[in-house]
Amino acid sequence: xxxxxxxxxxxxxxxxxxxxxxxxxxxxxxxxxxxxxxxxxxxxxxxxxxxxxxxxxxxxxxxxxxxxxxxxxxxxxxxxxxxxxxxxxxxxxxxxxxxxxxxxxxxxxxxxxxxxxxxxxxxxxxxxxxxxxxxxxxxxxxxxxxxxxxxxxxxxxxxxxxxxxxxxxxxxxxxxxxxxxxxxxxxxx
Length: 189
Description:
Layout: E1 2-8, H1 14-25, E2 28-31, H2 32-42, H3 45-55, H4 62-75, E3 81-85, H5 91-102, E4 110-115, H6 118-132, H7 139-162, E5 166-170, H8 175-187
Parallel strand pairs: 1-3, 1-4, 2-3, 4-5
Helix pairs in contact: 1-8, 2-3, 2-4, 3-4, 4-5, 6-7
């Protein structure tokens, strides 16, 4: 099984590169936000519980997110692996993911960290906001999102380095060049 965790600040290209990884390696893509919205829409028990937290403006407990991810993972028949996008975001979540995968005889194969300088992220996100009309792609909100991202992920980068799974990826350059570096890293495992 090829289980990949993809990291990167907002605007780093995670979505674009995830699509390319899925296409090349034939693995499934799990975006935490997409999964939560699907569970809620389907009216599952997990979805109803998640909706209760969301409606009260609360973050979902790690156990609930892990249960939802486990349910999604177990639903993939004949899967070659998964790319986790948007999860984990804390060390507790990384530990829970490791445990959940171990219970299935699996592990995280690699953690890809798409590293892009902050000035470039600002440029990309402001451009995306202008093109897509996304309200959260404005300078003030972007700065807040980047502060949160860096404060949450710095400890995780060290955690994955200590676990021997960390792989730095230069997120500057052409989409093809960045993907070539990603594919080279994946092909080595």
